């Protein structure tokens, strides 16, 4: 879920605050993060246009599909995925594993209404959120509640046809944007999979590149800047050599690091700041050394 950094209502208090978005769907403002859960231009639209369609999942010709959803939120990514597969007439089995911090948003899920065919799908998703899982002949949906880092190492290699990567923003949720977490994402994806994310932050693209991903531009939605696509093979249009050189040159492309997938977010942020300072000093010394030599 893309995190919009606009400040919420002054009366927000400590709890989530429902906010209507431009496409008629609802999002939440979370005061503890200081962010909206989705783009205010359209929460459902964002799930469809930034994750489901760019992932290429709708074009896969197979009798089974498996998707990892990192950041369940209100379930819009899963909703847009199921609704879109139904629209294209997909007849196979869909398996979704979704990672989410906790179950505290159930009261808000219970209030969400679309007043169209999505309501029936959403009732299924809501039930899975409440119970933790759901099984039918065509759908397997597991929602794993807790720190996402505690689950990823137990998930099977090459299991997923797509990853919707949708945590809170890197500055607020750095533990899920680290080089080491993305290394797990690389392991979990099959050779035909695409990872989608709303972020184009240099430290995110730097981490993805360092892991070994090919990275490209994701779509811009609702006036927001572009996202990022990542794949293990040449399924996406890669960033140009000029853009990749600029990324490599950008000191802010230094990634977050969390080797044991257990560090406190504050320590992860501080470690990156120290690494950037050291790199900046090193570059400065090299520059001055070069000037003297000339």
Task: Please provide a written account of the structure.
This protein has 294 residues and is an alpha/beta fold. The chain has a single domain, classed as Rossmann fold (3-Layer(aba) Sandwich), CATH 3.40.50. The protein has helices at residues 43-52, 76-87, 106-109, 118-131, 149-152, 179-188, 202-211, 241-249, 265-293; strands at residues 17-20, 26-30, 35-36, 64-70, 93-100, 133-135, 139-145, 160-165, 189-197, 214-217, 228-231. It is globular. Mean pLDDT is 91; it is low at 5-12.
| Coarse shape | globular
Uncertain ranges? 5-12
Tell me what the CATH architecture is: 3-Layer(aba) Sandwich
What is the CA-based Rg, rounded?
20 Å
Quick structural overview:
The protein has 9 helices and 11 strands. It is of the alpha/beta class and 294 residues long. The chain has one domain: 3-Layer(aba) Sandwich (Rossmann fold), CATH 3.40.50.150.
Task: Please write out the topology.
Layout: E1 17-20, E2 26-30, E3 35-36, H1 43-52, E4 64-70, H2 76-87, E5 93-100, H3 106-109, H4 118-131, E6 133-135, E7 139-145, H5 149-152, E8 160-165, H6 179-188, E9 189-197, H7 202-211, E10 214-217, E11 228-231, H8 241-249, H9 265-293
Parallel strand pairs: 4-5, 4-8, 5-7, 8-9
Antiparallel strand pairs: 1-2, 2-3, 6-7, 9-11, 10-11
Key phrases:
single chain; 294 residues; alpha/beta; Rossmann fold; 3-stranded antiparallel sheet; 9 helices; 11 strands; 35% helix; globular
């Amino acid at each position: 879920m893309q995190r919009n950094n606009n400040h919420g209502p002054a009366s927000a208090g400590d709890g989530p605050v429902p906010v209507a978005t431009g496409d008629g769907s609802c999002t939440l403002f979370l005061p503890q993060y200081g962010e909206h859960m989705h783009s205010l231009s359209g929460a459902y639209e964002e799930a469809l246009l930034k994750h489901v369609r760019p992932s290429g999942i709708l074009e896969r010709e197979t009798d089974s599909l498996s998707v990892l959803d990192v950041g369940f939120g209100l379930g819009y990514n899963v909703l847009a995925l199921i609704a879109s597969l139904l629209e294209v007439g997909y007849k196979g089995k869909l398996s979704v594993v979704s990672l989410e911090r906790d179950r505290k948003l159930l009261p808000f899920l219970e209030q969400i209404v679309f007043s169209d065919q999505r309501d029936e799908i959403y009732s299924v998703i809501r039930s899975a959120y409440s119970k933790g899982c759901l099984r039918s002949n065509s759908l397997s949906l597991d929602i794993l509640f807790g720190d996402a880092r505690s689950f990823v190492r137990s998930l099977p290699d090459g299991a997923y046809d797509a990853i919707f990567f949708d945590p809170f923003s890197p500055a607020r949720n750095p533990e899920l944007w680290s080089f080491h977490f993305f290394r797990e994402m690389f392991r979990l994806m099959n050779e035909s999979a695409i990872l989608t994310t709303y972020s184009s932050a240099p430290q995110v693209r730097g981490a993805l590149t360092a892991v070994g991903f090919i990275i490209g531009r994701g779509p811009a939605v609702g006036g927001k800047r572009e996202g990022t696509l990542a794949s293990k093979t040449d399924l996406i249009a890669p960033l140009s050599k000029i853009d990749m050189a600029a990324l490599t040159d950008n000191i802010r492309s230094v990634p977050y690091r969390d080797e044991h997938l257990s560090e406190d977010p504050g320590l992860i942020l501080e470690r990156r700041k120290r690494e950037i300072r050291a790199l900046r000093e090193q570059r400065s010394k090299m520059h001055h050394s070069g000037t003297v030599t000339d």
